[in-house]
Design brief:
This protein is of the alpha+beta class. About 35% of the residues lie in helices and about 15% in strands.
């Protein structure tokens, strides 16, 4: 199998980076709901949602945190080089529109690491990957015209995904199937011919959500070596949300594709640990991308595939290196599990989220995010005693996190039957020691007896009546 490396990051936080960040710029969402949490990034952040530091306050609006893998992934910027000869040529061809390039850093790329540097260099070029196929359909035709053309083949029954074969592949060559790994060369433009994606060796597994549906549906209809134009409606691309900042909402896309290679998906146990970690990070980044788009089912699927890549068994029965491998992948498993639990909570899969959070605590007993989620779910399930123990442990680790205080306050009220006779009051952080039991402060009650305001009012009324009587008597 060809090892694959992440070529671009998603802005996180959102990020998938946006999680921002999608990926990668990490942003810390503001605290909105004490019960919501954010999935983990490379750096620990606010309890449920902060992407920056573990000691920060918990973000209560749960958004998937993106964990960018420094040194393994870099965003590829596509610049606009100035080429006098090309400009002159475009001046002569007034009928053709100039292709403009934008940064497609939101795309998770899977590339062959051995050629990564070369690919990035070529991707930064303004040259087309298919210069011999610069026909009218690619350079100037409107998408409406292309959708209406009869010489384009419908890939789907709804006629929203069409292709035109430019060069046929190897005769009698088999077509790829779901679950196989493929390598394609591709470039993609909007209707105004702005280049939004370009990759000389894009590697992905069909059916695993590594790329959008348009690419998967088209590739399974191609033969090895085939070059084709692909016109995709937004429903098969990025739909209502688009892909900031380069692909707007409801934008159809036009691709040029060549299927370079087809092979079986490798067994994770046959790969070196470094390659498994790299692929797992790519799957996790894709999960962050789906989480940001609130496509939580797809995010859960991506995180589960990322975890599958982090298995540490050995087929030959030699377990000597298993322990060392387990240490290496433990941190990555914790990140994937925390992100998975956040997605499961969004889907209201509370039992699954509890089980996932407990898996995190098995690997890392002092993980504050997992402690918080576990305590919150147990509290919602009326397991008050166990929930109190877990939340108190989380509070001891991060006494300044507001979300933990809020959840403890809710828990105390539930234990007291929902009355406001007792309430949680946070201790100053410097006062917290081994004993972090909550302060139970009785609610203020109005003192019994007659109010002094009532007595004073009665005296004023009586005095007024007396004065009035005296004046009336004097007049008479």
């Amino acid at each position: 199998m060809v090892p694959i490396a992440l070529c671009s990051e998603m802005d996180s936080e959102p990020c998938c980076e946006d999680n921002k960040d999608p990926l990668v710029e990490r942003t810390e969402p503001e605290e909105r709901d004490a019960t919501s949490e954010l999935a983990d990034k490379d750096g620990h952040t606010e309890l449920p949602c902060g992407p920056a530091g573990e000691s920060q306050e918990t973000c209560e609006n749960e958004r998937a945190e993106t964990e960018s893998c420094a040194g393994e992934s870099k965003s590829t910027e596509i610049k606009n080089p100035t080429d006098p000869e090309r400009e002159a040529g475009e001046t002569e061809c007034k009928g053709q529109r100039k292709l403009r390039k934008t940064n497609s850093w939101k795309m998770v790329r899977f590339q062959d690491p051995s050629t990564e540097d070369e690919v990035l260099e070529r991707d930064s070029s303004a040259e087309s990957l298919f210069p011999e196929y610069a026909m009218e359909e690619w350079t100037s035709s409107t998408f409406e015209e292309l959708f209406m053309k009869e010489d384009w083949q419908n890939i789907t029954d709804d006629r929203l995904l069409k292709k035109k074969v430019l060069e046929r592949g190897v005769s009698c060559a088999p077509q790829p199937t779901w679950g196989q790994e493929v390598t394609v060369k591709m470039q993609c433009v909007l209707e105004d011919r702005t280049v939004v994606e370009k990759d000389c060796k894009l590697v992905f597994v069909i059916g695993e959500g590594d790329v959008n549906q348009a690419l998967e549906e088209c590739v399974i209809s191609m033969q090895k070596g085939e070059i084709t134009l692909l016109l995709a409606d937004s429903q098969y691309a990025y739909g209502l949300l688009g892909r900031e900042p380069d692909i707007p909402a409801w934008a159809p896309l036009l691709y040029q594709l060549q299927l370079l290679d087809i092979r079986e998906k490798p067994d994770p146990l046959t790969l070196p640990v470094a390659d498994r970690i790299r692929i797992s990070n790519q799957k996790r980044e894709r999960g962050n991308f789906y989480f940001q788009r609130e496509e939580y089912s797809m995010a859960v699927r991506a995180y589960c595939m990322a975890l599958d890549m982090l298995t540490t068994g050995s087929r030959d029965g030699n377990d000597g290196g298993v322990e060392a491998e387990e240490e290496e992948v433990c941190d990555y498993r914790v990140k994937c599990l925390n992100n998975l639990a956040a997605s499961q909570l969004k889907l209201e899969q509370y039992k699954e989220a509890l089980h996932t959070s407990q898996d995190v605590l098995t690997l890392e007993p002092n993980n504050v995010k997992a402690l918080f989620r576990t305590g919150k779910i147990l509290s919602d399930m009326a397991e008050y005693k166990e929930a109190m123990e877990v939340l108190k442990k989380a509070l001891k680790l991060e006494p300044a996190t507001k979300a933990i205080h809020v959840e403890l306050s809710k828990l105390v009220k539930r234990q007291s039957g929902g009355n406001d006779t007792q309430e949680w009051r946070a201790k100053p952080a410097e006062m917290l020691g081994d004993n972090i039991a909550p302060f139970l402060i009785p609610s203020k009650k109005k003192p019994s007896g007659i109010s002094w305001k009532f007595i004073l009012g009665a005296l004023v009324v009586a005095l007024g009546s007396l004065v009035t009587s005296v004046i009336l008597t004097a007049r008479n």
